[in-house]
Amino acid sequence: MSDLEGWPGSGLSDEELDVAYNVRRKAGPELFERHMARYREMSEQAVDGLPGHPGIAYDEASGERLDVWGVGDGLRPVFVFLHGGYWMALSRDVSSFMARALDEQGVATVVPDYTLAPEASLEEIVRQARAAVAWVYRHGREHGLDPERIVVGGSSAGGHLTAMTMVGGWQDDVGLPQDVVKAAMPFSGLFDIRPITRIYVNRYVKLDLERAAALSPALLDAGHRCPAVFVAGEDDGDGFLEQSRLFQPRWGAGELMIVPGRDHFDVVLDLADPESRVSAELMRLIRR
User: Fold this and answer.
1) What is the pTM assigned to this prediction?
2) For residue 228, with 0-12 CB atoms within 10 Å meaning exposed, 13-18 middle and 19 or more buried, which class applies?
């Protein structure tokens, strides 16, 4: 399990790995800041006046909170979005940009916070992501959410967390059905995170190869294989593209979508455009 051979990072130097996975450096400071400003602006616009239940504590142990957006009459299918930021940045406040577009199609959005590294270990961050799904299943009805129609998605580190809710081996421990996640859409996900042990991010997440392997969805029992669409931008980091291209066929119940003209940071913003192919694929997952 500790050997990188045959998986992202095999045969690369540490500098080459950093180039493959340092998407902030690839974008450059000006473009990166523009992307982050768009996240905030689009999220604020999406939830302005939108019916919802913001700031609900979903996890007693950590005290972390989530926002519910786009509630209506009856129970709605729900898209749980887990934000990125290499497990050490961003928040739910800048991650609800898809909420209005989904509301207009009769879908609710749930956006959780999780404790960021290095304050929390990656094991704890994974636990919290799964706790957010458990909260929707157990308490969703009280907030207009259908616990039988949960779709999970996330970008970058959030794509990793999405996959950690897709795999098996954890649902029984928290009293959930194996198919609690009915479908998934990871964006630019990290599925074998052993390369992280050799790049700058490890100063914050502090993984060794053994722990990284244990937290890699590609190396875990798939359990119930839910339908999935694995999304990446054409101009994404090479490491992220390789991760999706390798994991999608191994998952065996999903499709790979490489979106032209999009990079690591803006591909997920297509969720805010109901006319985009990304949005159409998400709605197909939700409705199937």
Assistant:
1) 0.97
2) buried
